[in-house]
Specification:
Layout (H helix, E strand, L loop, with lengths): L1 H24 L9 H29 L4 H10 L10 H20 L1 H13 L1 H5 L3 H18 L12 H18 L3 H23 L4
Helix pairs in contact: 2-8, 2-9, 4-9, 5-7, 7-8, 8-9
Protein name: CAAX prenyl protease 2/Lysostaphin resistance protein A-like domain-containing protein
GO molecular function: endopeptidase activity
Organism: Candidatus Yanofskybacteria bacterium GW2011_GWA2_44_9
């Protein structure tokens, strides 16, 4: 009887050990995505912004005091997007490399640091439901400041707020999701390059 009880307890212990090892090896929601998955996320964010950005821009233009005069004035302050193709490398260096690096450093890298620190702290933060607030409250504040920095001359340019705020949040989400700074830089540069190419196409067909 005693040997049977010992055998049963031994089996239970071995089963619990195997189960705990299995759980430890399972991927979790907080597990950092692989490099391949990060590139997939970058592509998804690019598609979302390419589809939603123009719609939000039109919405802002129609309902937030936008007019063609203001649009022309704003375009002049961002002339690099309209440089001719024979100055492509100059435009690319500015809109696809320099601007994304600088802006991500000031407005998304602090969120990257916060996200990494919260992940390092571990389950105590997650259990207290503070992870979301500690990450996204400063993220939204910094994103709003980033958008405001594009409004150059006050209310005349508020029509760009919805599109910029949305795209900025997608890059912030990318930073938090990947816990790496480079995906948002790539996504930002890709978006700016897309805008430059679109501007060139509009020039070719005579719309601008």
């Amino acid at each position: 009887m005693t040997s049977a009880a010992v055998s049963l307890v031994s089996k239970i212990l071995h089963a619990n050990i195997r189960r705990s090892r299995h759980i430890e090896n399972e991927p979790t929601m907080d597990q950092e995505p692989s490099t391949k998955e990060k590139w997939r996320l970058i592509f998804k964010i690019w598609v979302i912004n390419t589809l939603c950005g123009p719609l939000l821009f039109i919405f802002g233009f129609l309902f937030l005091d936008g007019n063609f005069k203001h649009l022309q004035e704003y375009a002049k302050t961002h002339y690099h997007y309209f440089l001719p193709l024979n100055r492509f490398f100059e435009a690319f260096n500015r809109v696809s490399i320099s601007d994304p690096l600088q802006e991500e450093f000031y407005f998304r890298w602090p969120i990257w640091i916060i996200a990494v620190l919260i992940y390092k702290v571990g389950r105590k933060i997650e259990y207290c439901n503070l992870q979301f607030f500690l990450t996204w409250i400063p993220a939204i504040v910094l994103n709003t400041i980033w958008v405001s920095s594009h409004l150059t001359s006050g209310k005349s340019y508020y029509f760009i707020f919805p599109a910029l705020f949305f795209t900025g949040l997608t890059w912030t989400w990318l930073t938090i999701k990947t816990r790496q700074p480079w995906p948002s830089i790539v996504a930002h540069g890709l978006a700016n390059t897309t805008i430059y190419i679109l501007a060139q196409l509009l020039k070719i067909i005579g719309l601008i």
